[in-house]
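Hi D.,

Good news: the full-assembly prediction came through. Inputs first.
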Amino acid sequence: MVGTEAYVVLSMVLFILGAMGVLLRRNAILVFMSVELMLNAANLALVAFARQWGASDGHLFVFFVITVAAAEVAVGLALIVAIFRTKKSIDIDELHQMEG
Amino acid sequence: MFEVPVLADLNLGVTLPSVFLALYATVLLAVDIFIPSEHKIRTAWLALAGIVVSFVLNLMTYNTVDSAFFGMFTADPFSAFLNIISLVTAFISILLSVDYLKRAGIERGEFYPLILFTTTGIMFMGHANDLIVIFVGLELLSIPLYVMAALRYPDLKSEESGIKYFILGAFASAFFVYGSALIYGATGTTNLPEIFQSVSVITATEGNSSMMILLMGAGLAIVGLGFKVAAVPFHMWTPDVYEGAPTPVTAFMSVGAKIGGFAALLRILIVGLPMLVILDGQTTAAWQQTIALIAAATLIIGNLVAIAQTNIKRMLAYSSIAHAGYVLMAIAAAGTLGIGDKAAQSAVVYLMSYMFTNLGAFAVALAIEKNDGTGTNISDFVGLGKSKPALALMMTVFMLSLTGIPLTSGFIGKWMVFQATMESGLVGLAIVGVVTSVASAFYYVRIIVNMFLKDGEGDPAAGATQYVNWAVYVSFAGTVLLGIFPFLMLNLANPITLAVIAP
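Then the structure:
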Protein backbone atom coordinates (compact mmCIF):
# COMPACT_ATOMS: atom_id res chain seq x y z
CA MET A 1 0.00 0.00 0.00
CA VAL A 2 1.29 3.45 -0.90
CA GLY A 3 1.87 5.55 2.21
CA THR A 4 -0.07 8.70 3.00
CA GLU A 5 3.10 10.80 2.73
CA ALA A 6 3.45 9.97 -0.97
CA TYR A 7 -0.07 11.19 -1.69
CA VAL A 8 0.41 14.34 0.33
CA VAL A 9 3.69 15.14 -1.43
CA LEU A 10 2.01 14.58 -4.80
CA SER A 11 -0.88 16.83 -3.78
CA MET A 12 1.56 19.53 -2.71
CA VAL A 13 3.31 19.33 -6.09
CA LEU A 14 -0.03 19.62 -7.89
CA PHE A 15 -1.07 22.52 -5.65
CA ILE A 16 2.15 24.41 -6.36
CA LEU A 17 1.81 23.72 -10.10
CA GLY A 18 -1.73 25.11 -9.95
CA ALA A 19 -0.64 28.19 -8.01
CA MET A 20 2.18 28.83 -10.48
CA GLY A 21 -0.31 28.46 -13.31
CA VAL A 22 -2.60 31.10 -11.82
CA LEU A 23 0.29 33.49 -11.38
CA LEU A 24 2.03 32.90 -14.72
CA ARG A 25 -0.66 32.04 -17.26
CA ARG A 26 -2.29 34.91 -19.13
CA ASN A 27 -5.27 33.17 -20.70
CA ALA A 28 -8.34 33.36 -18.44
CA ILE A 29 -9.40 29.79 -19.24
CA LEU A 30 -5.97 28.41 -18.37
CA VAL A 31 -5.89 30.44 -15.16
CA PHE A 32 -9.23 28.98 -14.35
CA MET A 33 -8.04 25.42 -15.04
CA SER A 34 -5.08 26.05 -12.74
CA VAL A 35 -7.49 26.99 -9.94
CA GLU A 36 -9.32 23.71 -10.54
CA LEU A 37 -5.98 21.89 -10.31
CA MET A 38 -5.39 23.51 -6.91
CA LEU A 39 -8.81 22.43 -5.70
CA ASN A 40 -8.24 18.89 -6.90
CA ALA A 41 -4.85 18.81 -5.19
CA ALA A 42 -6.72 19.62 -1.99
CA ASN A 43 -9.20 16.84 -2.77
CA LEU A 44 -6.36 14.34 -3.17
CA ALA A 45 -4.88 15.38 0.17
CA LEU A 46 -8.29 15.13 1.84
CA VAL A 47 -8.93 11.63 0.52
CA ALA A 48 -5.45 10.47 1.50
CA PHE A 49 -5.86 11.82 5.02
CA ALA A 50 -9.35 10.32 5.27
CA ARG A 51 -7.88 6.91 4.54
CA GLN A 52 -5.17 7.45 7.11
CA TRP A 53 -7.63 8.45 9.84
CA GLY A 54 -10.20 5.86 8.80
CA ALA A 55 -12.90 8.52 9.07
CA SER A 56 -15.33 9.78 6.46
CA ASP A 57 -15.09 13.53 7.20
CA GLY A 58 -12.49 13.90 4.48
CA HIS A 59 -14.65 12.20 1.87
CA LEU A 60 -17.54 14.42 2.89
CA PHE A 61 -15.40 17.50 2.41
CA VAL A 62 -14.35 16.29 -1.05
CA PHE A 63 -17.97 16.03 -2.17
CA PHE A 64 -18.60 19.58 -1.04
CA VAL A 65 -15.48 20.82 -2.83
CA ILE A 66 -16.52 19.10 -6.08
CA THR A 67 -20.05 20.52 -5.89
CA VAL A 68 -18.89 24.04 -5.14
CA ALA A 69 -16.24 23.86 -7.87
CA ALA A 70 -18.99 23.00 -10.34
CA ALA A 71 -20.97 26.06 -9.25
CA GLU A 72 -17.85 28.16 -9.61
CA VAL A 73 -17.27 26.85 -13.14
CA ALA A 74 -20.76 27.94 -14.14
CA VAL A 75 -20.23 31.51 -12.95
CA GLY A 76 -16.62 31.72 -14.10
CA LEU A 77 -17.25 30.57 -17.66
CA ALA A 78 -20.22 32.92 -17.90
CA LEU A 79 -17.97 35.81 -16.90
CA ILE A 80 -15.32 34.76 -19.40
CA VAL A 81 -17.92 34.53 -22.19
CA ALA A 82 -19.29 37.96 -21.28
CA ILE A 83 -15.85 39.56 -21.36
CA PHE A 84 -14.96 37.82 -24.63
CA ARG A 85 -18.08 39.27 -26.26
CA THR A 86 -17.13 42.81 -25.28
CA LYS A 87 -13.41 42.63 -25.81
CA LYS A 88 -12.83 39.73 -28.21
CA SER A 89 -9.97 38.62 -25.98
CA ILE A 90 -9.61 36.75 -22.70
CA ASP A 91 -6.02 37.73 -22.02
CA ILE A 92 -6.03 38.89 -18.40
CA ASP A 93 -3.06 41.20 -19.02
CA GLU A 94 -5.28 43.31 -21.24
CA LEU A 95 -7.68 43.99 -18.39
CA HIS A 96 -6.51 47.36 -17.25
CA GLN A 97 -9.42 49.77 -17.47
CA MET A 98 -8.70 50.97 -13.97
CA GLU A 99 -5.32 52.19 -12.80
CA GLY A 100 -4.14 54.10 -9.79
CA MET B 1 -23.47 0.67 12.25
CA PHE B 2 -24.64 3.74 10.45
CA GLU B 3 -27.95 5.07 11.63
CA VAL B 4 -30.18 7.19 9.51
CA PRO B 5 -30.72 10.42 11.45
CA VAL B 6 -34.26 11.58 12.06
CA LEU B 7 -35.23 15.17 11.41
CA ALA B 8 -35.45 16.02 15.11
CA ASP B 9 -31.75 15.19 15.56
CA LEU B 10 -30.78 17.99 13.24
CA ASN B 11 -32.10 20.56 15.73
CA LEU B 12 -33.34 22.80 12.94
CA GLY B 13 -34.90 25.30 15.35
CA VAL B 14 -31.64 27.07 16.12
CA THR B 15 -30.75 27.40 12.44
CA LEU B 16 -33.99 29.23 11.68
CA PRO B 17 -32.71 32.77 10.89
CA SER B 18 -30.19 31.67 8.26
CA VAL B 19 -32.01 28.63 6.86
CA PHE B 20 -35.17 30.69 6.54
CA LEU B 21 -33.29 33.31 4.54
CA ALA B 22 -31.78 30.66 2.24
CA LEU B 23 -35.17 29.11 1.52
CA TYR B 24 -36.77 32.51 1.12
CA ALA B 25 -34.14 33.57 -1.42
CA THR B 26 -34.73 30.37 -3.40
CA VAL B 27 -38.48 30.99 -3.45
CA LEU B 28 -37.95 34.65 -4.32
CA LEU B 29 -35.85 33.63 -7.32
CA ALA B 30 -38.83 31.69 -8.65
CA VAL B 31 -41.41 34.33 -7.71
CA ASP B 32 -39.36 36.98 -9.50
CA ILE B 33 -40.08 35.31 -12.86
CA PHE B 34 -43.74 36.27 -12.49
CA ILE B 35 -43.05 39.89 -11.61
CA PRO B 36 -43.24 42.09 -14.73
CA SER B 37 -40.03 43.92 -15.52
CA GLU B 38 -41.53 47.39 -14.96
CA HIS B 39 -42.43 46.41 -11.38
CA LYS B 40 -39.14 44.92 -10.22
CA ILE B 41 -39.42 47.10 -7.14
CA ARG B 42 -41.80 44.45 -5.81
CA THR B 43 -38.94 41.96 -5.73
CA ALA B 44 -36.96 44.47 -3.72
CA TRP B 45 -39.82 44.88 -1.26
CA LEU B 46 -40.19 41.11 -0.93
CA ALA B 47 -36.45 40.79 -0.31
CA LEU B 48 -36.63 43.50 2.38
CA ALA B 49 -39.55 41.64 3.99
CA GLY B 50 -37.49 38.45 4.10
CA ILE B 51 -34.61 40.28 5.75
CA VAL B 52 -36.94 41.73 8.37
CA VAL B 53 -38.42 38.30 9.19
CA SER B 54 -34.95 36.78 9.49
CA PHE B 55 -33.90 39.72 11.68
CA VAL B 56 -36.83 39.16 14.04
CA LEU B 57 -36.17 35.42 14.19
CA ASN B 58 -32.55 36.21 14.99
CA LEU B 59 -33.48 38.58 17.83
CA MET B 60 -35.87 35.99 19.26
CA THR B 61 -33.06 33.43 19.48
CA TYR B 62 -30.33 35.92 20.43
CA ASN B 63 -29.26 34.35 23.71
CA THR B 64 -29.60 30.69 22.76
CA VAL B 65 -26.43 28.69 22.84
CA ASP B 66 -27.04 25.49 20.96
CA SER B 67 -25.72 23.47 18.06
CA ALA B 68 -27.37 21.85 15.08
CA PHE B 69 -26.49 19.45 12.25
CA PHE B 70 -24.50 17.26 14.66
CA GLY B 71 -22.24 19.98 15.95
CA MET B 72 -21.34 21.43 12.55
CA PHE B 73 -23.48 24.50 13.08
CA THR B 74 -23.61 26.51 16.24
CA ALA B 75 -25.82 29.35 17.38
CA ASP B 76 -24.50 31.67 20.07
CA PRO B 77 -24.46 35.42 20.76
CA PHE B 78 -21.40 35.75 18.47
CA SER B 79 -23.26 34.45 15.44
CA ALA B 80 -26.43 36.33 16.42
CA PHE B 81 -24.49 39.60 16.66
CA LEU B 82 -22.91 39.03 13.25
CA ASN B 83 -26.32 38.12 11.86
CA ILE B 84 -27.61 41.52 12.96
CA ILE B 85 -24.73 43.25 11.18
CA SER B 86 -25.07 41.24 7.98
CA LEU B 87 -28.85 41.61 7.80
CA VAL B 88 -28.67 45.38 8.31
CA THR B 89 -25.96 45.52 5.62
CA ALA B 90 -28.21 43.65 3.19
CA PHE B 91 -31.16 45.88 4.10
CA ILE B 92 -29.29 49.12 3.47
CA SER B 93 -27.70 47.75 0.29
CA ILE B 94 -31.11 46.90 -1.14
CA LEU B 95 -32.34 50.42 -0.33
CA LEU B 96 -29.32 51.74 -2.22
CA SER B 97 -29.88 49.44 -5.18
CA VAL B 98 -33.54 50.07 -6.00
CA ASP B 99 -33.17 53.38 -7.82
CA TYR B 100 -29.53 52.97 -8.77
CA LEU B 101 -30.16 49.85 -10.81
CA LYS B 102 -33.02 51.58 -12.59
CA ARG B 103 -31.09 54.70 -13.55
CA ALA B 104 -28.03 52.67 -14.56
CA GLY B 105 -30.27 50.55 -16.79
CA ILE B 106 -29.33 47.27 -15.12
CA GLU B 107 -32.50 46.54 -13.21
CA ARG B 108 -32.58 42.78 -13.04
CA GLY B 109 -34.83 40.90 -10.64
CA GLU B 110 -32.27 38.24 -9.75
CA PHE B 111 -30.12 40.88 -8.09
CA TYR B 112 -32.17 40.81 -4.88
CA PRO B 113 -32.13 37.03 -4.37
CA LEU B 114 -28.36 37.16 -5.00
CA ILE B 115 -27.98 39.65 -2.15
CA LEU B 116 -30.00 37.34 0.09
CA PHE B 117 -27.83 34.35 -0.88
CA THR B 118 -24.66 36.25 -0.05
CA THR B 119 -26.17 37.30 3.26
CA THR B 120 -26.98 33.67 4.02
CA GLY B 121 -23.38 32.77 3.27
CA ILE B 122 -22.14 35.43 5.68
CA MET B 123 -24.51 34.18 8.35
CA PHE B 124 -23.35 30.59 7.87
CA MET B 125 -19.76 31.67 8.35
CA GLY B 126 -20.68 33.21 11.67
CA HIS B 127 -22.53 30.06 12.67
CA ALA B 128 -19.88 27.64 11.44
CA ASN B 129 -18.39 25.19 13.87
CA ASP B 130 -16.77 23.06 11.23
CA LEU B 131 -14.30 23.69 8.43
CA ILE B 132 -16.74 22.24 5.87
CA VAL B 133 -19.44 24.73 6.87
CA ILE B 134 -16.94 27.60 6.71
CA PHE B 135 -15.98 26.51 3.18
CA VAL B 136 -19.58 26.25 2.00
CA GLY B 137 -20.41 29.60 3.62
CA LEU B 138 -17.36 31.19 2.01
CA GLU B 139 -18.43 30.04 -1.44
CA LEU B 140 -22.07 30.95 -0.90
CA LEU B 141 -20.82 34.41 0.03
CA SER B 142 -18.44 34.71 -2.93
CA ILE B 143 -20.18 33.25 -5.95
CA PRO B 144 -23.18 35.64 -5.95
CA LEU B 145 -20.75 38.52 -5.39
CA TYR B 146 -18.80 37.58 -8.56
CA VAL B 147 -22.06 37.81 -10.49
CA MET B 148 -23.11 41.08 -8.86
CA ALA B 149 -19.74 42.71 -9.49
CA ALA B 150 -20.17 42.09 -13.21
CA LEU B 151 -23.85 43.09 -13.16
CA ARG B 152 -23.25 46.14 -15.31
CA TYR B 153 -22.23 44.10 -18.39
CA PRO B 154 -21.51 44.91 -21.21
CA ASP B 155 -19.71 47.75 -19.43
CA LEU B 156 -16.07 46.70 -19.57
CA LYS B 157 -15.11 48.09 -16.18
CA SER B 158 -17.79 46.09 -14.44
CA GLU B 159 -16.93 42.90 -16.33
CA GLU B 160 -13.29 43.40 -15.50
CA SER B 161 -14.18 43.88 -11.87
CA GLY B 162 -16.20 40.65 -11.91
CA ILE B 163 -13.50 38.53 -13.51
CA LYS B 164 -10.73 39.92 -11.32
CA TYR B 165 -12.77 39.23 -8.22
CA PHE B 166 -13.64 35.79 -9.54
CA ILE B 167 -10.07 34.70 -10.32
CA LEU B 168 -8.62 35.96 -7.07
CA GLY B 169 -11.60 34.74 -5.06
CA ALA B 170 -11.33 31.24 -6.51
CA PHE B 171 -7.56 31.32 -5.95
CA ALA B 172 -8.14 32.27 -2.32
CA SER B 173 -10.76 29.55 -1.85
CA ALA B 174 -8.28 26.99 -3.15
CA PHE B 175 -5.78 28.14 -0.52
CA PHE B 176 -8.43 27.87 2.14
CA VAL B 177 -9.45 24.36 1.06
CA TYR B 178 -5.86 23.17 0.97
CA GLY B 179 -5.24 24.69 4.39
CA SER B 180 -8.31 22.94 5.75
CA ALA B 181 -7.14 19.67 4.20
CA LEU B 182 -3.81 19.99 6.02
CA ILE B 183 -5.51 20.90 9.31
CA TYR B 184 -7.71 17.84 8.84
CA GLY B 185 -4.65 15.75 8.10
CA ALA B 186 -2.92 16.84 11.29
CA THR B 187 -5.90 16.59 13.62
CA GLY B 188 -8.17 13.98 12.04
CA THR B 189 -11.30 16.09 12.32
CA THR B 190 -12.92 19.09 10.70
CA ASN B 191 -14.93 20.04 13.76
CA LEU B 192 -13.47 23.15 15.43
CA PRO B 193 -13.87 22.15 19.12
CA GLU B 194 -12.43 18.70 18.27
CA ILE B 195 -9.55 20.38 16.45
CA PHE B 196 -8.95 22.31 19.66
CA GLN B 197 -8.75 19.05 21.65
CA SER B 198 -6.46 17.50 19.12
CA VAL B 199 -4.14 20.51 18.95
CA SER B 200 -3.52 20.33 22.69
CA VAL B 201 -2.40 16.72 22.27
CA ILE B 202 -0.14 17.56 19.32
CA THR B 203 1.58 20.47 21.08
CA ALA B 204 2.17 18.31 24.17
CA THR B 205 4.09 15.67 22.19
CA GLU B 206 7.60 16.60 21.20
CA GLY B 207 8.88 16.37 17.65
CA ASN B 208 6.12 15.01 15.48
CA SER B 209 5.35 15.85 11.88
CA SER B 210 1.72 16.78 12.69
CA MET B 211 2.95 20.09 14.08
CA MET B 212 4.52 21.03 10.73
CA ILE B 213 1.39 20.08 8.80
CA LEU B 214 -0.80 21.95 11.26
CA LEU B 215 1.28 25.13 10.98
CA MET B 216 1.21 24.96 7.19
CA GLY B 217 -2.52 24.33 7.21
CA ALA B 218 -3.22 27.26 9.53
CA GLY B 219 -0.99 29.47 7.40
CA LEU B 220 -2.75 28.56 4.16
CA ALA B 221 -6.18 29.02 5.74
CA ILE B 222 -5.12 32.48 6.97
CA VAL B 223 -3.91 33.34 3.45
CA GLY B 224 -7.23 32.21 1.97
CA LEU B 225 -9.30 34.26 4.37
CA GLY B 226 -6.82 37.14 4.17
CA PHE B 227 -7.76 37.50 0.49
CA LYS B 228 -11.44 37.68 1.41
CA VAL B 229 -10.98 40.44 3.99
CA ALA B 230 -8.45 42.26 1.77
CA ALA B 231 -5.50 42.18 4.14
CA VAL B 232 -2.09 43.30 2.87
CA PRO B 233 -0.32 41.58 1.00
CA PHE B 234 -3.48 39.97 -0.41
CA HIS B 235 -5.26 43.23 -1.18
CA MET B 236 -4.23 44.00 -4.77
CA TRP B 237 -7.62 43.12 -6.23
CA THR B 238 -9.61 45.39 -3.91
CA PRO B 239 -9.34 48.84 -5.55
CA ASP B 240 -10.02 47.57 -9.09
CA VAL B 241 -12.93 45.40 -8.03
CA TYR B 242 -14.46 48.14 -5.86
CA GLU B 243 -14.11 50.76 -8.56
CA GLY B 244 -15.55 48.65 -11.36
CA ALA B 245 -18.49 47.07 -9.57
CA PRO B 246 -21.82 48.94 -9.43
CA THR B 247 -21.73 51.20 -6.36
CA PRO B 248 -24.43 49.45 -4.28
CA VAL B 249 -22.58 46.18 -4.84
CA THR B 250 -19.32 47.81 -3.77
CA ALA B 251 -21.02 49.08 -0.63
CA PHE B 252 -22.40 45.63 0.08
CA MET B 253 -19.18 43.72 -0.53
CA SER B 254 -16.98 46.19 1.33
CA VAL B 255 -18.89 45.28 4.47
CA GLY B 256 -20.44 41.87 3.82
CA ALA B 257 -17.42 39.99 2.52
CA LYS B 258 -15.35 41.32 5.41
CA ILE B 259 -17.88 40.26 8.05
CA GLY B 260 -17.84 36.74 6.65
CA GLY B 261 -14.07 36.53 6.43
CA PHE B 262 -13.51 37.87 9.91
CA ALA B 263 -16.21 35.63 11.38
CA ALA B 264 -14.41 32.61 9.94
CA LEU B 265 -10.98 33.84 11.06
CA LEU B 266 -12.24 34.41 14.60
CA ARG B 267 -13.95 31.02 14.70
CA ILE B 268 -10.94 29.11 13.38
CA LEU B 269 -8.30 30.94 15.41
CA ILE B 270 -10.13 31.35 18.73
CA VAL B 271 -12.26 28.21 18.82
CA GLY B 272 -10.00 25.83 16.89
CA LEU B 273 -6.41 26.93 17.24
CA PRO B 274 -5.93 29.11 20.35
CA MET B 275 -3.47 26.59 21.79
CA LEU B 276 -1.39 26.26 18.65
CA VAL B 277 1.95 26.96 20.31
CA ILE B 278 5.33 25.87 19.09
CA LEU B 279 6.71 25.12 22.55
CA ASP B 280 4.45 23.65 25.18
CA GLY B 281 3.58 26.12 27.94
CA GLN B 282 3.73 29.33 25.89
CA THR B 283 0.88 31.75 26.49
CA THR B 284 0.69 33.25 23.02
CA ALA B 285 -0.45 31.33 19.98
CA ALA B 286 1.99 30.70 17.15
CA TRP B 287 -0.15 32.70 14.72
CA GLN B 288 -0.18 35.87 16.83
CA GLN B 289 3.03 37.37 15.42
CA THR B 290 1.98 36.60 11.84
CA ILE B 291 -1.43 38.22 12.24
CA ALA B 292 0.14 41.20 14.03
CA LEU B 293 2.55 41.70 11.12
CA ILE B 294 -0.25 41.42 8.56
CA ALA B 295 -2.31 43.90 10.60
CA ALA B 296 0.52 46.42 10.78
CA ALA B 297 1.22 46.14 7.03
CA THR B 298 -2.49 46.46 6.26
CA LEU B 299 -2.81 49.57 8.41
CA ILE B 300 0.20 51.28 6.93
CA ILE B 301 -0.37 50.46 3.25
CA GLY B 302 -4.14 50.95 3.37
CA ASN B 303 -3.93 54.36 5.00
CA LEU B 304 -0.96 55.66 3.03
CA VAL B 305 -2.14 54.65 -0.43
CA ALA B 306 -5.62 56.02 0.29
CA ILE B 307 -4.10 59.50 0.53
CA ALA B 308 -3.05 59.38 -3.13
CA GLN B 309 -6.48 58.43 -4.51
CA THR B 310 -8.61 60.76 -6.60
CA ASN B 311 -11.63 58.50 -7.05
CA ILE B 312 -13.96 58.21 -4.05
CA LYS B 313 -14.64 54.50 -4.70
CA ARG B 314 -10.92 53.74 -4.84
CA MET B 315 -10.32 55.86 -1.76
CA LEU B 316 -13.01 54.01 0.14
CA ALA B 317 -11.50 50.74 -1.13
CA TYR B 318 -8.14 51.59 0.44
CA SER B 319 -9.93 52.90 3.52
CA SER B 320 -11.72 49.55 3.78
CA ILE B 321 -8.33 47.81 3.57
CA ALA B 322 -7.13 50.02 6.41
CA HIS B 323 -10.21 49.21 8.48
CA ALA B 324 -9.59 45.51 7.94
CA GLY B 325 -6.25 46.23 9.60
CA TYR B 326 -7.96 47.44 12.78
CA VAL B 327 -10.08 44.30 12.99
CA LEU B 328 -6.92 42.24 12.39
CA MET B 329 -5.38 44.04 15.38
CA ALA B 330 -8.20 42.61 17.51
CA ILE B 331 -7.61 39.16 16.04
CA ALA B 332 -3.90 39.39 16.78
CA ALA B 333 -4.80 40.34 20.35
CA ALA B 334 -6.87 37.16 20.60
CA GLY B 335 -3.64 35.18 20.32
CA THR B 336 -2.79 35.92 23.94
CA LEU B 337 -4.32 33.32 26.20
CA GLY B 338 -7.32 34.71 28.10
CA ILE B 339 -7.89 37.73 25.86
CA GLY B 340 -9.79 35.71 23.22
CA ASP B 341 -13.31 36.67 24.25
CA LYS B 342 -12.54 40.32 24.79
CA ALA B 343 -10.81 40.51 21.44
CA ALA B 344 -13.73 38.83 19.69
CA GLN B 345 -16.11 41.34 21.31
CA SER B 346 -14.01 44.29 20.22
CA ALA B 347 -13.77 42.87 16.66
CA VAL B 348 -17.54 42.53 16.28
CA VAL B 349 -18.19 45.95 17.83
CA TYR B 350 -15.71 47.40 15.36
CA LEU B 351 -17.45 45.63 12.48
CA MET B 352 -20.84 47.02 13.55
CA SER B 353 -19.64 50.60 13.76
CA TYR B 354 -17.71 50.22 10.48
CA MET B 355 -20.83 48.79 8.83
CA PHE B 356 -23.04 51.83 9.50
CA THR B 357 -20.36 54.38 8.70
CA ASN B 358 -19.03 52.78 5.55
CA LEU B 359 -22.47 52.09 4.08
CA GLY B 360 -23.35 55.72 4.75
CA ALA B 361 -20.23 56.96 2.99
CA PHE B 362 -20.94 54.76 -0.03
CA ALA B 363 -24.57 55.93 -0.04
CA VAL B 364 -23.47 59.57 -0.36
CA ALA B 365 -20.94 58.64 -3.05
CA LEU B 366 -23.75 56.86 -4.88
CA ALA B 367 -25.99 59.91 -4.59
CA ILE B 368 -23.58 62.14 -6.52
CA GLU B 369 -22.72 59.48 -9.11
CA LYS B 370 -23.99 60.07 -12.66
CA ASN B 371 -26.15 57.57 -14.49
CA ASP B 372 -23.26 56.30 -16.60
CA GLY B 373 -21.11 55.52 -13.58
CA THR B 374 -18.90 58.61 -13.77
CA GLY B 375 -18.86 61.49 -11.31
CA THR B 376 -17.13 59.53 -8.57
CA ASN B 377 -14.08 61.74 -8.26
CA ILE B 378 -13.21 63.42 -5.01
CA SER B 379 -13.39 66.75 -6.85
CA ASP B 380 -17.06 66.05 -7.54
CA PHE B 381 -17.70 66.72 -3.85
CA VAL B 382 -16.74 70.38 -4.25
CA GLY B 383 -19.63 72.63 -3.30
CA LEU B 384 -21.87 69.86 -2.04
CA GLY B 385 -22.18 71.81 1.22
CA LYS B 386 -24.10 74.47 -0.66
CA SER B 387 -26.20 72.40 -3.02
CA LYS B 388 -27.12 69.65 -0.54
CA PRO B 389 -26.26 70.83 2.99
CA ALA B 390 -27.99 67.98 4.81
CA LEU B 391 -26.27 65.31 2.71
CA ALA B 392 -22.91 67.05 3.10
CA LEU B 393 -23.37 67.28 6.85
CA MET B 394 -24.08 63.59 7.14
CA MET B 395 -21.09 62.79 4.91
CA THR B 396 -18.99 64.86 7.32
CA VAL B 397 -20.14 62.71 10.22
CA PHE B 398 -19.34 59.52 8.27
CA MET B 399 -15.85 60.81 7.47
CA LEU B 400 -15.26 61.77 11.11
CA SER B 401 -16.49 58.37 12.22
CA LEU B 402 -14.15 56.62 9.80
CA THR B 403 -11.32 58.69 11.28
CA GLY B 404 -12.44 57.73 14.78
CA ILE B 405 -13.46 61.06 16.33
CA PRO B 406 -15.32 60.78 19.69
CA LEU B 407 -19.13 60.84 19.71
CA THR B 408 -19.22 58.73 16.57
CA SER B 409 -19.43 54.96 16.46
CA GLY B 410 -16.03 54.70 14.79
CA PHE B 411 -14.43 55.99 17.98
CA ILE B 412 -16.07 53.30 20.11
CA GLY B 413 -14.90 50.58 17.74
CA LYS B 414 -11.33 51.84 17.74
CA TRP B 415 -11.36 52.32 21.52
CA MET B 416 -12.41 48.71 22.07
CA VAL B 417 -9.83 47.36 19.61
CA PHE B 418 -6.95 49.42 21.03
CA GLN B 419 -7.91 48.37 24.55
CA ALA B 420 -7.84 44.66 23.61
CA THR B 421 -4.52 45.11 21.80
CA MET B 422 -2.94 46.84 24.79
CA GLU B 423 -4.21 44.15 27.16
CA SER B 424 -2.66 41.43 25.05
CA GLY B 425 0.73 43.14 25.26
CA LEU B 426 1.05 44.10 21.60
CA VAL B 427 2.04 47.69 22.40
CA GLY B 428 3.95 48.21 19.15
CA LEU B 429 0.92 47.23 17.10
CA ALA B 430 -1.30 49.57 19.11
CA ILE B 431 1.09 52.45 18.41
CA VAL B 432 0.99 51.68 14.67
CA GLY B 433 -2.81 51.71 14.92
CA VAL B 434 -2.95 55.11 16.62
CA VAL B 435 -0.43 56.71 14.26
CA THR B 436 -2.16 55.44 11.12
CA SER B 437 -5.53 56.60 12.50
CA VAL B 438 -4.13 60.10 12.73
CA ALA B 439 -2.72 59.82 9.20
CA SER B 440 -6.10 58.65 7.93
CA ALA B 441 -7.65 61.97 9.01
CA PHE B 442 -5.72 63.52 6.12
CA TYR B 443 -7.75 61.93 3.35
CA TYR B 444 -11.06 61.84 5.19
CA VAL B 445 -10.90 65.52 6.06
CA ARG B 446 -10.05 66.35 2.46
CA ILE B 447 -13.59 65.32 1.49
CA ILE B 448 -15.01 67.63 4.17
CA VAL B 449 -12.82 70.49 2.97
CA ASN B 450 -13.97 69.87 -0.61
CA MET B 451 -17.61 69.94 0.41
CA PHE B 452 -17.61 73.08 2.54
CA LEU B 453 -14.52 75.19 2.04
CA LYS B 454 -13.91 75.05 -1.69
CA ASP B 455 -15.87 77.25 -4.06
CA GLY B 456 -17.62 75.56 -6.87
CA GLU B 457 -20.94 74.70 -8.31
CA GLY B 458 -22.30 71.95 -6.10
CA ASP B 459 -23.33 68.63 -7.53
CA PRO B 460 -27.14 68.35 -7.76
CA ALA B 461 -26.87 64.85 -6.24
CA ALA B 462 -29.36 63.42 -8.69
CA GLY B 463 -28.96 60.00 -7.15
CA ALA B 464 -30.30 61.11 -3.78
CA THR B 465 -33.73 59.59 -4.28
CA GLN B 466 -36.07 58.70 -1.48
CA TYR B 467 -34.69 55.18 -0.98
CA VAL B 468 -31.09 56.39 -0.99
CA ASN B 469 -32.01 59.11 1.49
CA TRP B 470 -33.49 56.52 3.80
CA ALA B 471 -30.33 54.46 3.56
CA VAL B 472 -28.30 57.55 4.49
CA TYR B 473 -30.63 58.34 7.41
CA VAL B 474 -30.40 54.80 8.79
CA SER B 475 -26.60 54.79 8.51
CA PHE B 476 -26.40 58.26 10.05
CA ALA B 477 -28.68 57.26 12.94
CA GLY B 478 -26.58 54.16 13.53
CA THR B 479 -23.30 56.07 13.44
CA VAL B 480 -24.43 58.80 15.83
CA LEU B 481 -26.59 56.74 18.21
CA LEU B 482 -23.94 54.07 18.70
CA GLY B 483 -21.36 56.82 19.17
CA ILE B 484 -23.32 58.60 21.89
CA PHE B 485 -24.88 55.53 23.50
CA PRO B 486 -22.23 52.85 22.97
CA PHE B 487 -23.83 50.59 25.57
CA LEU B 488 -26.48 49.76 22.97
CA MET B 489 -24.00 47.58 21.12
CA LEU B 490 -21.61 46.86 23.98
CA ASN B 491 -24.41 45.17 25.91
CA LEU B 492 -25.23 43.07 22.88
CA ALA B 493 -21.57 42.13 22.49
CA ASN B 494 -21.07 41.40 26.17
CA PRO B 495 -22.38 37.80 26.25
CA ILE B 496 -20.04 36.76 23.41
CA THR B 497 -17.80 33.91 24.45
CA LEU B 498 -15.89 32.00 21.81
CA ALA B 499 -13.05 30.38 23.68
CA VAL B 500 -13.68 26.81 24.74
CA ILE B 501 -11.51 27.09 27.83
CA ALA B 502 -11.56 29.57 30.66
CA PRO B 503 -8.30 31.53 31.04
